[in-house]
Amino acid sequence: MKWNIPYDSSRFVQISITEVVKTLLEAVALVFVVMFLFLQNWRYTIIPTIVVPIALLGTFASLLALGFSINVLTMFGMVLVIGIVVDDAIVVVENVERIMSEEGLSPFEATRKAMKQISSAIIGVTVVLISVFVPLAFFAGSTGNIYRQFSAVMVTSIAFSAFMALSLTPALCATLLKPVEAGHHHEKTGFFGWFNRGFSRTAKGYESMVARILRRAARYLIIYVAIIGAVVFTYSRLPSSFLPQEDQGNIIVNVQLPPGATQERALSVMQQVEGFILKQPEVQSMVGVMGFSFSGQGQNAGLAFVTLKDWEERKDPAHSASALAGRAFGALSGIRDAFIYPLSPPPIPELGNASGFSFRLQDRSGAGHEALINARNQLLGMAGQSKILSQVRPDGLEDAPQLQIDIDRDKANALGVSFDAINATLSTGLGSSYINDFPNRGRLQRVVVQADAPARMQPDDLLKLNASNTQGQPVPLSAFATTKWVTGATQTVRYNGYPAIRISGDAAAGFSTGAAMAEMEKLAGQLPQGFGFEWTGQSREEKLAGSQAIILYGFAILAVFLCLAALYESWSIPLSVILVVPLGVLGVLLATMLRAYSNDVYFQVGLITIIGLSAKNAILIIEFAKDLQAQGKGVIESALAAAHLRFRPIVMTSLAFGLGVVPLVIASGAGSASQRAIGTGVLGGMVTGTALAVIFVPVFFVVVRTLFKGSACQHEADKQHAEAAGIVEEPKHD
What we know:
This protein is an alpha+beta fold. Helices cover about 60% and strands about 15% of the residues. Strands 5, 6, 13, 14 and 15 form a 5-stranded antiparallel sheet that branches. A 4-stranded antiparallel sheet has the order 2-3-1-4. A two-stranded antiparallel sheet has the order 7-12.
């Protein structure tokens, strides 16, 4: 005896999580390489690396306490947060290493001085990142459930990272690091010497460029306005969808024969489907089920579950689940005896039966079933001519022939036959009736009465059945009833109280589901008055996610602004930080468009992440510039010095985070579509957010601090903060 599981949906979940774990390990390795490249000492590198497992373990404990599970979404969050959790530790270690190298202080003294300078920056960055992700947890619906997974991971990981950056990391720096002579890291030879000299030249060139830019700040503000215009234009042109379509390792084939078709015909069609499917090279097995489909139940319906081979055996896109579904649709459409639709399962099974859209056409004026069918046919005809739509089809059983029995009530009453008796006769003759039990050879068996099969094959056979009148005499139904064939609905579908028809479909190649839904709404507007529509399942969630996106971004930016305003007790500093957000958003949009992705839930999560990370880079510069200005330096001089001091940690942390998400960008196998969708936007936003921020943030600081000089009380508070941070001397330049 042997057993086999022909259809197992849990296989995709298990393999997806395994792939994400591999991506997580790859991200940690890449981050380690970046830190070693810049710090060039295993002692410096091991300190931020220790932070990663501690932060992740703390996050797992928090997820358990909050009632979350280890799933694909939470693991995505883990990969995304790898580069963030090491940022604070990198900032601490880099500042300690810089002070030791420039001033020759001992590890203990260098750590004390470094923490005075950057503690407020770490707190500011942490507050900003947490305030960006907290609003995600308060959105409702299926989109809100996805947001909450990321929010819980991000917030807890970032909080643990900041806590350790202010406690464990300084302790490790003071104990693990060894004293070095001033100028130590500029005396290396070999590869690291070449890298240091090259980076030093880059830093000096960057500082010279910033000095020239600050003298022409107005010109760069015009460029900044042009960037904002490009962001708005690109965002408006970005196609929308709900979630990327995943290759889940299986497809489903929906088989629907014409009304009244027999089970034998349906079985013959299913055998033809099986013959084609099992010949395909990517198919492992198929199991067919007769008697029901996504359209409904009946002997003219069938459903086939097709399991594909492992993802490693079909890396070619031509052997993906969606490619097989398209190929099968073209081949099986030649079977003229049935409507056959191969379908890819949706990313979230609870939100529908297949990918694409779910449309409900409603009769809101009581026009009747026939008028609703005519409106449906008109809509399907228009959809068939659209270049944006594909496989638009009614998702239900068609009207079928029905035998109608007309009863002459007057004759029935005259003959003494009640309606209860007529109903009992038809129910017993066509269905069956339980009478009683009787003993038979020691066993108790049931007595069930039903008309014999040959006696209920034709319409005239029904009229030969007898109903008892009030005197107990048998009266044939033919004495007061007649029969006729009619066409009627086999299903009663209502949506929000209105008679409705289910319609499903997909976007044509090169178009998103958002474009397909917009096209369906446009076509539905051309129907006669009295017919409306609504979206359901995944399509409804996609509409809600799109309407919530602007609110989400607005909440994120507002939260950042208010938290910074409370932290720094100033309106000008948060404004300088917020201005950097469009620079990162531009990269998210461009990267998403270059890979032909769409504005979906993962895009929105990536965009929120970039809002926080862009603000982080701005804080690292503006925090130092503000303190230097409080010590009496000019606004331009302060901006130049801060840009020089923070250039190295910004590049290092941004490069660490960027390489940390590269495994997401190039992911393959199970769950790779979602990984690529979220990683692409984040990487693009990190590139432009870093490259443009180091140029524009000093400009923002100079312009804002020039326009809003602040009160005397504010200047005094800034001065006291700078003195507490130990920023009292001119920063040393290489």
